[in-house]
Description:
The protein has six helices and four strands; from the N terminus they run H-E-E-E-E-H-H-H-H-H. Strand 2 and strand 3 (43-44) form a beta hairpin. The protein has 238 residues and is mainly alpha-helical. The longest helix is centred in the middle third of the chain and has 35 residues, at 86-120. The protein has a two-stranded antiparallel sheet with strand order 1-4. Strands 2-3 form a two-stranded antiparallel ribbon. Helix 1 (13-23) runs antiparallel to helix 2 (56-73) and helix 4 packs antiparallel against helix 5 (169-199). The protein is 66% helix and 5% strand.
Amino acid sequence: MSLGSPASSATDTRLTTLENDIGKTQGVQSVTPATVDSKGDAAVFTAIPTTAPSSDKTVDLVNDLRDNVIPAALKGTDLKAYVGGQTAGYIDLADRISEKLPSMILIVVALSFLVLLLAFRSVLVPLKAAIMNLLSVAAAYGVVTFVFQEGHGASLIGLDGAIPIVSFVPLLMFAILFGLSMDYEVFLLTQVHEHYKEHSDPSRAVVEGLANTGRVITSAALIMVFVFGASSSTATRP
């Protein structure tokens, strides 16, 4: 906690009022005595919750302290208080990522659309690619939420039950999945385009393009499945 004006000691009434109000908050197990720096303008104390750091109740507690308890305790004073720690850090990181994720998705999709537009001289091809890849990423998000956040089938991969999804996982998932799917998309469309240039038959070009790339793409996908599956098994092993 940062104090906006000097505090002579840890017994400053403004500081003790804040400590007492936080200590009385539901979900707080105990509050440690405050430590004031030598200048008397900053103090730090620890509020220990009754729940685990990753629990939803701990998240609710941090939000309650920030939105209700601390503003009420400091009303009429010139003090400033900040909530830190593991849970608060995850909340702030999640808020920041949630704020930037739509922009990142829009930029990546727009750049991919532009590259495919220049490569294939077609509007429908990059539009179809963007839509299908976004649907694939959305399906992957759904599976992760269904298994990890809701706990369905979690025991099959070595988990005891539902666990929170780390805030940066959706960002990494989008970057990896969209990049891989777009890579295979370009590989497939390049083959289709080359066969179309040979005989100008769209249906035949699609069939031959799929026949030439199907095994390679499927094999590469299986390799990624086994790689990420092995990594997940290692990470969840007690």
